[in-house]
Design goal:
The protein is built from 8 helices and 15 strands. By secondary structure, it is an alpha+beta fold. Strand 1 and strand 2 form a beta hairpin. Helix 6 crosses helix 8. The structure holds N-(5'-phosphopyridoxyl)-D-alanine (PDD).
């Protein structure tokens, strides 16, 4: 079945899903996006993602003509039209279409696209063995806290992981330390405590990160938000990544060095299982 996209008020087949060559999303990456995971045909944490989409748009001063309820409705309708089961919906908003000029054009309508996307869950092998990652200097900008369409640095980082035949990257920002994964948040566990970098302009406030912190308290783990240096991450008992797609995934090798025992550990497993319990309660 051909996928159905929502574009600016219309549902169209993927083969007819076009936006203008003068769309500012194309010309400048001038927009924001969100990704929501559907499990068993039900969205997980949809409201939280829509809230963040609205907040990202607000930060870059895109005035949305859609209410939160309307965005939720469009997302659910897109899922229904695509008979979505265990996949994602991407929601992309740009400032709109206008003759190219950097500053905001007046009187333009934002572009909204929603489409389904097959879920990119970790392979069984990566789940079983844990992810192998490399660190890279973080060349991203100073607004990593919004989900901007312009993700060129992330694209280059993810390609570097592929080129090095590893599963992902960790961004190492000069003077700030290890901030997050290529498209995920980072946690490590040591001495009965779960650590993760605090919210700041250097990291993306992942919805999954928030849920994992909630789940960690539920599991009676202590959680500390602190700046993470590479040497301390390398000495961790366990390291894990968290995102809508990865859920909670063990990292077992960084820059060729094994983390802990070099296999996925019990803490990551417990966090993942408890996280999936929340998914089950919400979606099954
Ligand atoms: N990425 N950090 C970065 C840089 C991300 O791109 C993402 C998500 C996250 C985790 O956010 P969340 O828990 O809300 O999914 C952290 C998504 C999955 C993407 O770009 O496709």
């Amino acid at each position: 079945m051909e996928r159905i996209f929502f574009i600016n008020g219309h549902f169209v087949p993927a083969s007819e899903a076009f936006i203008s060559a003068e769309d500012r999303g194309f010309n400048f990456g001038d927009g924001v996006y969100e990704v929501v995971h559907w499990y068993n045909s039900q969205p997980f944490l949809l409201e939280e993602h829509i809230d963040r989409l609205i907040e990202s748009a607000h930060v870059i001063r895109i005035e949305l003509p859609w209410t939160k309820d309307e965005l939720i409705e469009i997302a659910k309708e897109t899922a229904l039209k695509n008979n979505l089961q265990d996949d994602y919906i991407y929601m992309q908003i740009s400032r709109g279409k206008a003759v190219r000029q950097h500053s905001f054009p007046v009187n333009i309508k934002p572009t909204l696209v929603m489409n389904t996307q097959p879920s990119a869950k970790p392979s069984d092998e990566v789940r079983q063995k844990g992810a192998r990652v490399i660190t890279l200097p973080d060349i991203r900008w100073l607004h990593c806290d919004i989900k901007a369409l312009s993700a060129l640095a992330n694209v280059l980082a993810k390609q570097a992981a592929k080129d090095h035949n590893v599963d992902d990257v960790l961004y190492d920002r000069s003077g700030v330390g290890i901030v997050e994964g290529g498209s995920s948040n980072i946690f490590y566990f040591k001495d009965n405590k779960l650590m993760t970098p605090p919210l700041s302009p250097y990291i993306f406030p992942g919805i999954t990160r928030g849920k994992v912190i909630e789940v960690a308290y539920e599991c009676n783990f202590e959680v500390e938000e602190k700046v993470l240096s590479l040497p301390e991450v390398l000495e961790a008992e366990e390291v894990m990544l968290a995102s809508t797609g990865l859920e909670v995934l063990s990292v077992t090798e960084i820059n060729g060095r094994k983390i802990g025992a070099g296999v996925p550990g019990p803490i990551a497993y417990k966090l993942w299982q408890t996280y999936m319990q929340h998914v089950k309660e919400a979606c099954y």
